[in-house]
Here is the input.
Amino acid sequence: MITAFDLEKNLTEKCDNVYELAGIKGKTKLELYRHGFKPGDTLNVMSVTKSVLSLLTGIAIDQGLISSIDDKVLSYYPDYAPKKGEKTIKDVTLRHLLTMTAPYRYHSEPWKRVCTSPDWTKAALDLLGGRKEITGDFLYSTLGIQILGGIVARVSKMSLSEFANRCLFAPLGIAPHHNDAASSQASQLEFLMSKRPKGDVWFADPRGANTAGWGLALGAMDMAKIGLLCLNKGVYEGKRIVSEKWISEATAPSVLCGYRFGGMSYGFLFWIVHPDRGIYAAIGDGGNLIYVNPGAHTVIAMASSFKPAVYDRVAFVEQNILPLFAGERANP
Here is the structure.
């Protein structure tokens, strides 16, 4: 029988960079704060940001701002001029971005090239396409998701943070976020590596365009609310926030990711952990996680400081946290 004492001990031994943990099953809630953190403190949740962008994309579709995920990407960037001779980019759709099957003109992500440019979205567009045709193969790209974020910002006529505040964060009771703009490479590094609370911010490029693949600061209970929204198929406290259709499609397998990614599948910027049981997650570097288990009616979230070579902690959650909710009623 796992106890709260066992959990703290196991976190210290195996996951000491976890600063906040939250779990929800029905009216039963678990909250744990470590290393001096307290309710309301936030951390950069890294690639969990991508799954939040997925929800914002679904909301934009629900509102008629985006007609279809099969729209061509360049139809939303009429002012962008592709490189001479570039043809592949013209066939890339939003679906390719959402499922990480878009092609790029690089072998490994050129972080310095993009993150030292004045316009990160244009820099990412300059990398989209290439000589290879669209193969449908999974190619994880954090920089490429900047393009999708730019589309949501364009169609909403707001920054991602403003759109999220209005259409996602406010209905969930998450504090409104403001931009933390990159002023230098040092400020970027500080944001990534600092273990101090970040505040209610979303990192942004020098133009104020929010980072779409990382850089959103949330607390574990904020993350758990997002997970609960997904668990309830787009409804939170009786209010519809995003369509059930979008949640169902976003959290269903679209592409198999391969051995490098633990054999998981990928939906629309969500990892499908156990397709046979419908378990999925938002996963970020350092072990940031929103774990959604519909069969157990349970959501578990972890907010962590950055730690190299830690990509997910699904196994830890299933072995050490999920048992704490055993026997609890889903709808007491």
